[in-house]
Specification:
Blueprint lengths: L14 E6 L20 H15 L3 E9 L14 E5 L2 E6 L16 H15 L5 E5 H15 L3 E4 L4 H10 L4 H8 L1 H14 L2 E4 L2 H7 L11 E3 L20 H7 L9 E5 L8 H9 L2 H6 L1 E5 L11 H16 L6 E2 L8 H11 L3 E4 L8 H8 L4 E4 L4 H8 L2 E4 L4 H12 L2 H18 L2 H18 L18 E5 L9 H13 L4 E6 L4 H10 L7 E4 L4 E4 L4 E2 L1 H7 L5 H8 L5 E3 L10 E5 L7 H10 L4 E6 L3 E6 L4 H12 L6 E5 L5 H4 L4 E4 L16 E3 L4 H11 L16 H4 L9
Parallel strand pairs: 1-2, 1-5, 2-4, 5-6, 6-7, 7-8, 9-10, 9-12, 10-11, 12-13, 13-14, 15-16, 15-24, 16-17, 24-25, 25-26
Antiparallel strand pairs: 3-4, 17-18, 18-19, 20-21, 21-23, 22-23
Helix pairs in contact: 1-17, 2-3, 3-6, 9-11, 9-15, 13-16, 18-25
The structure holds alpha-D-glucopyranose and magnesium ion.
């Protein structure tokens, strides 16, 4: 058995990083930024992060997982399952839910499917990642599932947070009900809490996010948070050259202005109330001295058709037009109708050439990427004192902060800026240096990898964060055994079996499927000295846990809970003779278990029919002539095995299952390779002669060994042809013989 994948990086020299960002539209270039609320800064951030991590010398491979979308209304690019964006870095598109493009608020029901498919992708890579990094609540949720199942650390970046949004919407007077209806906000907050609980490290862009936004969460653990600001694309944003700027956008600006050569106050923001362009216009309007010195240039969204905008945005835009008219600012304020993404660097350069400033008047600005872009273009900055700009200006020393709600303050700081040209020149220089020093993507990647390495080094000090890498991504076959009277019962043969598995060169996964509950199964494994299990299917298939940390498979629980009502089942069965509830410890969320006296009680079939008549749709499993388990319709050991096979993408003919009694029957049937040990109970006899079920002579674990040899399971494998089955047996219509 190969255990090397349990250790970080033994198989390959470098790190393998999985980034996840579910919503929006991501491709290698030509991002559709601003297309809708789901295509903001986050998608840009991810593409840059992925590329730059890929370039780090310690990194082998970066996969950026996002949702695959087939939609006539959007480009075909987003339907490609894979897009290489650099040598060792690719976008992997994973289908989930409907094929069409969906907004993030409605993706929640499809995230389990995303996680399962992501696991399959990771299996196809054949190696567990060194870190899984979820972005935003939805991918945080997916990442948390993957990381815990894979036993690797989880990184999380919220980008923006539900509790913060909830607070703001409430302040605006929106009712909770409306908020939830529109934004599915509680689902989001739940996902964030869950992710924050599991994250080994939370990466934020500013300290303010940590102190003010993450602080709102129950699972606030600032010691796990690291501030790594995003970078700016330094090859796109740079100071103007000596040459004259010649571009359409320049004409589009200048046609508004009486004296276009005057310095320029440049603002760049969506028409959104929170961007607070209104106070900027008033501040400018009330300051004639400032108007003498500088023009005001407002880049507030592309206006193909303002009618198509959201109501709020239209209002913001109308207000700006009315203010310009009211204060008669014609000839001093420009607000071009259109600008292309490539115009943005030119606008900063134009403002820099004109010895102007960039202004960000937002009520709060979570990060302030535009401010760094301006800095990198050697354009001084005057910015809001709420949020990210505080740290940027502290680092770069390239301008002033103001209180965005105080019009006089905005006006004074602008006057101040234009009163000292030496100071303006210094700010321009400092900003350029600061952007390179603090805000390069390569610097971000370096800090990121350092954080990850530190985590690996110190994990032993944090008991909650010891990563036990799952072997499941690397195994190529799977042995699943029932515990009682199959795996255990005879110590000597069990030892022989474990030795065989251990000595094999193949990558064999080992799991058990049992009627016992989890802790009882674990106890048995300890007593019988069965070492490492990749998973435990317990309580007759109703629960699945992975690895040494017993990570619960919530996806399985969600799948089986359909139509399940344990209380009503117990109530209905009270009236039947011959049934006695098993002890409390055997009753599980998805398992109601009885002792059955077959002489007094109706047959299992009749019991099932009886429950159906009470509109209770269940699975009934009879074992050892004395146990009766009532389970959700979709649950059994067999369906749990098939779920695992599907989740991990392991073909059935590479799975060997072994059992001895009634609750093993449905896992023995089907396309997996079945082995019935010699000491089986009478219920199992009827499987004789069925395809792919081998009845061993030998008992207990020796029977499993015999089965392994029969199928040459540890060698090249021998899948029996289905026509080996005797005609006699097939004719007995055993397909329906569950109970
Ligand atoms: C195990 C369980 C018991 C169950 C039986 C048959 O003995 O402890 O609750 O009824 O298996 O599945
Ligand atoms: Mg058994």
């Amino acid at each position: 058995m190969d255990l090397s994948s349990a250790m970080p990086n033994k198989n390959s020299s470098g790190l393998y990083i999985v980034l996840i960002s579910v919503h929006g539209l991501i491709r290698g270039d030509n991002l559709e930024l601003g297309r809708d609320a789901d295509n903001g800064g986050q998608i840009k951030y991810l593409v840059e992060l992925a590329k730059n991590l890929g370039q780090h010398p310690e990194v082998d491979r970066v996969d950026l997982l996002t949702r695959q979308v087939f939609d006539a209304k959007i480009a075909d690019d987003y339907s490609q399952p894979m897009e290489q964006i650099s040598d060792n870095c690719q976008i992997i598109r994973i289908p989930c839910g409907p094929k069409r493009y969906l907004r993030k608020e409605v993706l929640w029901p499809h995230l389990d499917a995303f996680a399962d498919r992501a696991l399959k992708h990771i299996r196809s890579v054949g190696r567990a990642p060194d870190v899984v990094h979820g972005h935003y609540a939805d991918a945080g949720f997916v990442g948390a599932q993957l990381a815990s199942i894979l036993g690797v650390p989880l990184f999380f970046t919220g980008h923006s947070l539900g509790r913060d949004k909830l607070q703001r919407l409430r302040e605006n007077g929106m009712r909770d009900e409306t908020i939830d209806k529109q934004y599915n906000i509680w689902q989001r907050i739940e996902a964030e809490e869950y992710t924050l609980d599991l994250a080994a490290t939370v990466i934020t862009s500013t300290q303010q996010e940590v102190d003010e936004q993450y602080q709102l969460y129950d699972n606030y653990q600032p010691e796990r948070m690291v501030v790594i600001p995003p970078g700016v694309e330094l090859d796109r944003f740079h100071p103007p050259g000596r040459r004259k700027i010649q571009a359409q956008i320049k004409n589009d600006v200048e046609r508004f202005l009486q004296q276009p050569k005057k310095p320029m106050i440049l603002a760049l923001a969506r028409a959104d109330r929170r961007k607070n362009v209104r106070n900027l216009v008033i501040a400018y309007a009330q300051n004639p001295e400032l108007q003498e010195k500088a023009n005001l240039v407002l880049i507030i969204g592309n206006r193909d058709d303002v009618e198509g905008w959201e109501k709020d945005s239209i209002q913001v835009f109308q207000e700006v037009l009315m203010l310009i008219d009211h204060y008669d600012l014609y000839g001093r304020v420009a607000y071009p109708k259109q600008h292309a993404p490539d115009d943005v660097p030119l606008l900063y350069q134009l403002a820099a050439k004109r010895k102007g400033v960039f202004i960000n008047p937002a009520l709060t600005e979570p990060f302030g990427l535009t401010i760094i872009e301006a800095a990198a273009s050697s354009l001084p900055v005057i910015a809001t004192q709420n949020g990210g700009p505080v740290e940027i200006i502290k680092n770069c020393r390239n301008g002033l902060l103001f209180d965005p709600e105080n019009v006089d303050d905005i006006s004074n700081k602008l006057t101040d800026a234009f009163s000292d040209s030496g100071q303006l020149r210094r700010w321009a220089k400092n900003g350029l240096a600061g952007a390179h020093r603090y805000y390069s993507w390569s610097g971000h990647a370096q800090h990121y990898i350092k954080t990850l390495n530190k985590l690996f080094k110190t994990q032993h000090k944090r008991p909650l964060h010891q990563f036990n890498r799952s072997r499941l991504p690397t195994i190529d076959r799977l042995l699943i055994c029932d515990i009682d009277n199959t795996l255990i019962g005879d110590g000597a043969s069990l030892k022989r079996l474990l030795d065989r598995i251990h000595q094999s060169d193949e990558h064999i996964g080992l799991g058990v499927a049992t009627g016992r509950h989890l802790s009882s199964a674990q106890q048995a494994m300890q007593e019988w000295e069965v070492p490492h299990l990749d998973f435990i299917i317990s309580s007759v298939g109703t629960e699945i846990h992975y690895g040494p940390q017993s990570v619960f498979d919530g996806g399985w629980a969600r799948l089986i809970e359909y139509r399940w009502n344990a209380e009503e089942i117990r109530f209905a069965l009270k009236s039947l003779a011959g049934l006695r509830l098993q002890p409390r410890s055997e009753q599980r969320p998805f398992k109601v278990s009885y002792f059955i006296d077959p002489h007094q009680a109706p047959s299992p079939k009749e019991i099932k029919r009886f429950l159906r008549q009470h509109d209770l749709h269940v699975n009934v499993v009879y074992s050892h002539g004395s146990f009766l388990d009532v389970l959700p319709m979709r649950a059994s050991k067999g369906s749990a095995v098939r779920y695992i096979a599907d989740k991990w993408g392991i073909p059935f003919e590479k799975i060997l299952v072994a059992g001895d009694s009634g609750n093993d029957i449905d896992m023995l049937r089907g396309d997996t390779l079945g082995v019935v040990v010699g000491n089986h109970t009478p219920e199992v006899k009827r499987l004789r002669g069925r395809p792919r079920i081998y009845f061993a002579e030998a008992e207990f674990a020796q029977g499993i060994i015999e089965g392994i040899d029969h199928y040459d399971f540890l060698g090249r494998g021998r899948t029996p042809d289905d026509d080996e089955v005797s005609d006699l047996m097939v004719s007995q219509n055993l397909l329906l013989a569950n109970i």
